[in-house]
Design goal:
CATH architecture: 3-Layer(aba) Sandwich
CATH topology: Arginase, Chain A
Number of helices: 11
Helix content: 40-55%
Distance between the termini: 6 Å
EC number: 3.5.1.-
Pfam families: Hist_deacetyl (PF00850)
Largest sheet: 8 strands, parallel
Structural class: alpha/beta
InterPro entries: HDAC_classIV, HDACs, His_deacetylse_dom, His_deacetylse_dom_sf, Ureohydrolase_dom_sf
Strand content: 5-15%
Order of helices and strands: EHHEHHHHEHEHEEHEHEH
Enzyme class: hydrolase
CATH superfamily: Histone deacetylase domain
Keywords: Hydrolase
Amino acid sequence: MLKIAYDPIYIHPLPAGHRFPMLKYELIPAQLLYEGLISEESLFSPGELPEEVILWTHEEAYWQQLRDLTLPLKDQRRTGFPLSGQLVDREKRIAQGTIEGCQYAIDNGVAFNVAGGTHHAGTNWGEGFCLLNDQSIAANYLLHNGLASSILIIDLDVHQGNGTAQIFENNASVFTFSMHGANNFPFRKEKSDYDIALPDDNGDEEYLSLLRTILPQLIAQQQPDFIFYLSGVDVLASDKLGKMALSKAACKQRDQFVFEQCIINKIPVQVSMGGGYSPDIKDIVEAHCNTYRVANELYF
């Protein structure tokens, strides 16, 4: 059975102007329930994220500014959100959902967070609608508790995972792989362990060929015992921010290939959904739901 972290707080604290793309957090589980792909038992509401766990990833001074709502206005503008207690609680809940998903993945092969993929948050900054880096927090949780010793983060969002790259730049236990648009946000990029910067209008064939060549090599070289996958659908040709040209079919094939590599190598994988900004919400939801459909076919 698929296990998916979901909580209404994922959307309700957001300012009205940001709610359209975030509607997917409600519509994805609703669609999967409608199809009968999941049941209510598949959805779990994350618990509380301990402050200690946050500080394994983010600097204390930065976290205190978030917690106490004293983050300077210029830094709030960098995040794209006006800071509020509800927003901080939302970010904590998302990160805890990713942590709890890791245990489900260890037991069952795969688990999801309907939100997450907050990969622009670094050790001491928030950026691009990201305040706390959920998969980095979860990776450090696994390492700290001896649940993994070698981790691969596969970031296939159209935007580089700059925060994730910075957090683990000196950590040999975590290998960061980002395949993203060269001419897209963030315009000041960090250095992942392996970056593939793609030109605008990159299409299905070239994208999939690169992924199918590189990912098996990385897994063979790094021998990870846990994988995080950020499955952003802002690579779609319809996406208003992506600058890429992938079809929904290719996006689905991308997900299938990642999951197949995890299964072949017997590596558990936690999936956070990442970005998606197509003007028609149906395109966003359909592409994200394909990720769940493929996982259900392959794992269950």
